Amino acid sequence: MDALRSGATTATDEIERAIALAASPACDKAFLHTRFEAARQDAAAAAGLPLAGLAVSVKDLFDVEGEVTAAGSTVLADAPPAQADCPAVARLRAAGAAILGRTNMSEFAFSGVGTNPHFGTPANPADPAVARIPGGSSSGAAVSVASGAAFIGLGSDTGGSIRIPAALCGIVGFKNTARLTSTEGAVPLSTTLDTACAMTRSVRDAVLAHEILTGEPVRRDGRPLSGWRLAVATSTMLDALEPGVARAFQRALDALRAAGARIDEIALAPIRDLGSIQPRGGFSAAESYAWHRALLADKGAGYDPRVKARIEFGADMRAHEYIALHQARRQWIARVGEALAGYDAVLSPTVPITAVPIAQVAPGAERDAEFFRVNAQLLRNTSIVNMLDGCALSLPCHAPGELPVGLMAWHEALHDDEVLAIGARIEEALAPVTASA
Fold first, then answer.
1. Which CATH architecture has domain 1-279+319-437?
2. Among 80, 305, 327, 431, which is most exposed with the fewest C-beta within 10 angstroms?
3. Which residues form the Amidase domain (predicted)?
4. Which distant-in-sequence residues (6+ apart) come within 8 Å of 157 by Cβ?
5. Is 284 a catalytic residue?
6. 59 assigned to active site
7. Are 162 and 172 in contact (CB under 8 A)?
8. Are 388 and 339 in contact (CB under 8 A)?
């Protein structure tokens, strides 16, 4: 963006660079459909607009006019093309985005791992030696951004599907308060938890993406780190951290304290109760089953068996259990809010592990147990924020030569501007640690 504004490069040059990267081995399996010639036209017409023709990728669950929205599946391949852009795509296009294409994803967004048995799994760009998972469900979006092909990767986050791949691929992912962005024109996973949001390569770019997607300016706050009161949640979120994650997170906390941050450790005990209030798969299973029921009856054999099993698990939730879940969630949110009184943000590892090899969790019944184990680990920390109806930013905190690790700054609903402002200060403080990571 700076190079464009200064005249050091042009929109034409930038879109050609993006197209070359999108077509390169670095983005193998990241895109399910590309529209390079249309992107060139988008870029040429975007002078003076906020995105100025920079490349944007779109997760396969969002409607783009004239294209089939298949949600990473084959069972929707014969669906009619979308008659209009969904609001998220329309806002990006109006801001001058050059839409590169549709990105790969976990089928119907139902996994934090990022594997896809129909179209293959894009490899995480962070490790050229080992093909590792990119994280999901917004897998292709993360790879498009981490490889440099896309300036913004539009995706969704229901239990961590923006922040998990951002953490594993070493980029920035912001999950805003769900109500701030429209999910109209997107295939739903959970109508209660779904959030339309994006991945970028810096917090500043995340702010720009958020402003475009919400249509509202982010309130800038230039306070230094010492001007904010931060907490580290010790309940659950620090359990069983992989050694590399624990080292990177502690090193980040040390760097933040050295930069003046005031960080308290708090128990945040209500987190421990979250599992007990989510029977039969919680919102995602029940609400996805409601959407998929007829499609499963007609085309169930075409689903990823792992996804099908998770959706069908929601068939047994009764109406009174669903209503009670909403009530229990409201009560739980209030308890967490009381525990966070006086704090501006909470810091946690985004995920407790680094990216595992794709071969370890590749499609196949013999690897199902390992897949679900890894999936549960990946979702553990991030899904807490979704149940809180909160907002969260994941940004890299690993050092050069290490597998990517994400630091998550988060809070309750409608604290988006504060979390982004704190994230910018964190990014600055961690720059000496993460330089060239």
1. Alpha-Beta Complex (3.90)
2. 80
3. 30-420
4. 138, 163, 173, 175, 194, 195, 197, 382, 386
5. no
6. yes
7. no
8. no
Which helix or strand (DSSP H or E) is residue 348 part of?
Answer: strand 345-349
Strand runs (DSSP E) across 244-329, as ranges? 262-266
The H-or-E segment that residue 44 falls in is: helix 36-44
What is the DSSP annotation of 400-436?
TTSPP-EEEEEESTT-HHHHHHHHHHHHHHHHHHHTT
Q: Residues 170, 201: contact at Cβ < 8 Å? A: no
- Closest Cα to residue 185, out of 109, 108, 89? 89
From 111, 137, 288, 394, active-site residue: 137
Both tokens of 49, joined, read 């607009």
Q: How many CB atoms lie within 10 A of CB 272?
A: 11
* Contact present, 396 and 405 (Cβ < 8 Å): yes
The one catalytic residue among 59, 73, 139, 284: 59
Look-up of token digits 């003076």: 48
Within 10 angstroms of residue 85's Cβ, the number of other Cβ atoms is 21
Question: What are the tens digits of pLDDT across the range 375-432?
Answer: 999 999 999 999 999 999 999 999 999 999 999 999 999 999 999 999 999 999 999 8
In the block, residue with structure tokens 């951004």: 145
What Cα–Cα distance (Å) separates residue 227 from each residue in 224, 257, 419, 421, 426? 5, 12, 13, 11, 12
Average pLDDT over the chain, rounded to an integer: 96
Identify the CA nearest to 222 among candidates 6, 37, 429, 422.
422
Is 137 tagged catalytic? Answer: yes
Nearest CA among 201, 178, 186 for reference residue 385? 178
Stretch 150-176: mean pLDDT, rounded? 98
